[in-house]
Amino acid sequence: MHGLSRRVNFARHIPSREKLHALCINPKAAAKQPKTPGAKRRPGRPKGSLNHPKAPVTLTPELERITALLTTLLQLIATVLSVTYVVLDGHFGNHNALYMARQCGLHLISKLRCDAALYFPYVGPYAGRGPRRKYGDKVDYDNLPAQYCKETTVEGHIKAQVYQMQLLHKEFAQPLNVVIIAKTNLRTQARAHVVLFSSDFDLAYAPLVDYYGLRFQIEFNFRDAKQHWGLEDFMNVTPTGVTNAANLSLFMVNVAHCLRADGHSREPDYSVLDLKADWRGAKYVEETIKLLPEKPEPILLAKILNRVAGLGRIHAAQPAFSFS
Questions:
Q1: How does DSSP classify residue 83?
Q2: CATH of residue 201
Q3: pLDDT per residue as tens digits for the range 176-197
Q4: Alpha helices in the chain (DSSP H)
Q5: How far is CA 168 from the centre of its chain?
Q6: What are the phi and psi torsion angles at 152 (to 5°)?
Q7: Which of 13, 92, 242, 288 is most exposed, with the fewest beta carbons within 10 Å of its own?
Q8: What is the arithmetic mean of pLDDT over 161-178?
Q9: How far is 176 from 265, CA to CA, in rounded Å?
Q10: For 65-90, what is the mean pLDDT?
Q11: Which of 164-199 are b and which e, b meaning 16 or more Cβ less than 10 Å from the residue's Cβ?
Q12: What angle (nearest 5°) sits at the alpha carbon of residue 116, between those of residues 104 and 220?
């Protein structure tokens, strides 16, 4: 009787047929079974493992179009100008755009998000095992190190500070030459900052800021071409017609800039609309004089031209002649 009870108690520890079947077909249940101590993987990189090359950067269709335009432009001006930098706005502040610029033999100047996660390079001691640490402390935009401050200016109640440093970003394969422009309202202590960067480590902070500022001048040129010189109004449909119309609009922006430069010393507010009004009025006077039986005297013609040409101007100028 005692031996029978021992056999019955032993049978209680034998899994049922259903339990054995579940262990065989359910890998999760099998994974929960205790493992032998020898099966535990050692920390660190497995011995004999090799480095795998990173996948090449795939350019977006937008970057492919820019690459084609840059390549064509560099070929056209190769014998005239030597281009070093390409300036793009914050939309292109990413690794793919940087890769595209370097593939074209140019350095990129662009802008990062104001909350971009930037890190100082790690300069501490080696831990003794594993890979060497790459990233140090994260950049705190409200407490930037004073040793990186390059310039401080105060205008009224606004204090502007310019910092320059080499930082790391986990989305970029290389370090970045970063310039941070921080402004502080001395009355309210409110802060704001802009983060510019370049792939050229030899570029100083002042030209980097100036070069990025040229992007706004390009925007102004397109604005003037659309608003004043018909860039968005022409009705051409053929490739040659569209090319000629676009080139003429942008060419007139340069012509207008040169013509306005002559009068800015005397009239600082002289605008493109004033310039167009002057030349339109001069054309009206010229066509009207042709209808007269006799051409007026030169002094009278100059007075008429000066008075009529300025009728359509926004900023009225003092006439050079007086009829009194």
A1: -
A2: 3.90.350.10
A3: 999 999 999 999 999 999 999 9
A4: 2-12, 17-25, 27-31, 61-76, 95-103, 205-228, 239-264, 272-290, 298-309
A5: 17
A6: -135, 125
A7: 13
A8: 95
A9: 42
A10: 92
A11: bbebbbeebeebbbbbbbbebeeeeeeeebebbbbb
A12: 60
Please check whether residues 82 and 152 belong to one and the same domain.
yes
Token duo for residue 148: 């990186």
Two tokens at 122? 């790690």
Is residue 115 assigned to a domain? yes
Least confident of 121-135, 138-152, 184-198, 203-217: 121-135
Residue with tokens 């339109």: 280
Residue 203, CB half-sphere, CA atoms under 13 Å: how many?
Answer: 21
- pLDDT for position 20: 46
For residue 22, what pLDDT is reported?
Answer: 46
164 and 281 co-located in one domain = no
Task: Give the pLDDT confidence of 95-129 residue by residue, as tens digits.
Answer: 999 999 999 999 999 999 999 999 999 988 887 77
Residue by residue, DSSP assigns 28-69 as HHHHTSPPPGGGSPPSSPPTT----PPPPP---HHHHHHHHH
Q: In angstroms, rounded to a whole number, what is the distance separating the alpha carbons of residues 316 and 278?
A: 11
Q: What is the pLDDT of residue 14?
A: 52
The residue with tokens 């306005």 is: 260
Q: How confident is the model at residue 10, as a pLDDT?
A: 46
**What would the two tokens of residue 84 be?**
């070093």
Task: Tell me the one-letter amino acid at 82.
Answer: S
Place of tokens 């049922």: 16
Per DSSP, 315 falls in state S
Number of domains within the chain: 3
- pTM to 2 decimals? 0.67
